[in-house]
């Protein structure tokens, strides 16, 4: 059952990344994300105001400061 879950999770992450959504998975904390994942977050949040960015960060378990550094 574990390998079936892992396979399904892998496929989901792959499809989601192809669609342009950052999904590092594998239990990685945001500091371990690839440059590609960080870039996708920066692009996704570029036009957000402070309130929208704060809400986005809460949902994604990120810190506003992290995204500002990545920019």
Explained architecture:
- The protein has 71 residues and is mainly α.
- The chain has helices at residues 2-18, 35-45, 50-60, 64-70.
- It has one domain (2-70).
- The chain has 4 helices and no strands.
> What's the pLDDT, averaged over the residues?
76
User: What gyration radius follows from the Cα positions, in whole Å?
Assistant: 13 Å
N/C terminus separation: 40 Å
Strand content: under 5%
Whole-number total of structural domains: 1
Summed up, the helix count is 4
Overall 3D shape: globular
- Share of helical residues: 55-70%
Major sheet characteristics: none
Q: Which oligomeric form is depicted?
A: single chain
Order of helices and strands: HHHH
Poorly predicted runs are none
| Count of DSSP strands | 0
Structure class: mainly alpha
List keywords for this structure.
71 residues, mainly alpha, 4 helices
Layout of helices and strands, plus pairs?
Blueprint: H1 2-18, H2 35-45, H3 50-60, H4 64-70
Question: What is shown here, in short?
Answer:
The chain is mostly helical.
